[in-house]
Task: inverse folding
């Protein structure tokens, strides 16, 4: 049986996979670049990201990051252990999202990180308490309608080879550029331009691994006129060169 709570150190090595259980990743130190189903964010101290069961996700930290990870055992476990909180916890675990922690939640995460989480009793009770404390955080922190990520992603993908500005995405979302920028910071923890860059580069990695197109052609398809600039951007984002990623098919 896998541990419920673990302390993990992340490096520039890219991790990309999926699993059949939901997961919460809480930032303790450093910054962890995270992408879940094409939506980019960054996990830092006093924030966490939700990875729903079955969601493909990738992460890496160029300068190192330390996180507390809660691997939810199963939906049955949620029902048995969370009681009246179970439905709210299930709603939280169903959507890939990055959220901030308030002062009390941050203290709880720090306390658990300093506790012997390899003790099954502490891990079980700590995970239950942590999940219960997060009930309602999604509605309270984000509220209202979220950004139209499907439309934004489609626009980025369709125009990946061309210059894109914040104003382009603002028109798709029906917001001013300033308002879009603020919403991206609140919901994703990154700027719209960082989101565009990350999505383009993830699209490039998919092409590197799934096609035989020359690297220069892939660079052009995701908006880089220079193959060297593309290679540098990929190295910064994933900690590996395009050639190395191609060989990791």
Result:
């Amino acid at each position: 049986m896998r541990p419920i709570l673990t302390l993990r150190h992340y490096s520039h090595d890219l991790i990309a996979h999926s699993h059949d259980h939901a997961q919460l990743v809480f930032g303790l130190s450093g910054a962890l670049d995270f992408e879940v189903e094409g939506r980019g964010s960054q996990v830092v101290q006093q924030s966490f990201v939700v990875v729903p069961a079955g969601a493909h996700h990738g992460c890496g930290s160029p300068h190192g990051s330390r996180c507390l990870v809660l691997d939810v055992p199963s939906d049955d476990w949620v029902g048995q252990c969370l009681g009246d909180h179970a439905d709210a916890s299930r709603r939280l675990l169903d959507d890939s999202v990055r959220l901030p922690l308030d002062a009390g939640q941050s203290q709880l995460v720090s306390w658990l990180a300093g506790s012997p989480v390899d003790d099954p009793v502490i891990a079980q009770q700590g995970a239950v308490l942590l999940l219960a404390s997060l009930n309602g955080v999604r509605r309270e922190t984000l509220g209202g309608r979220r950004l139209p990520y499907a439309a934004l992603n489609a626009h980025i993908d369709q125009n990946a080879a061309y210059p894109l500005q914040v104003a382009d995405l603002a028109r798709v979302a029906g917001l001013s550029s300033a308002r879009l920028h603020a919403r991206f910071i609140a919901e994703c923890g990154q700027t719209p331009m960082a989101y565009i860059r990350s999505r383009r580069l993830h699209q490039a990695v998919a092409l590197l691994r799934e096609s035989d197109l020359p690297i220069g052609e892939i660079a052009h398809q995701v908006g880089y006129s220079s193959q060297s600039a593309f290679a540098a951007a990929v190295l910064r984002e994933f900690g590996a060169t395009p050639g190395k990623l191609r060989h990791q098919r």
Summary: The longest helix spans residues 192-210.
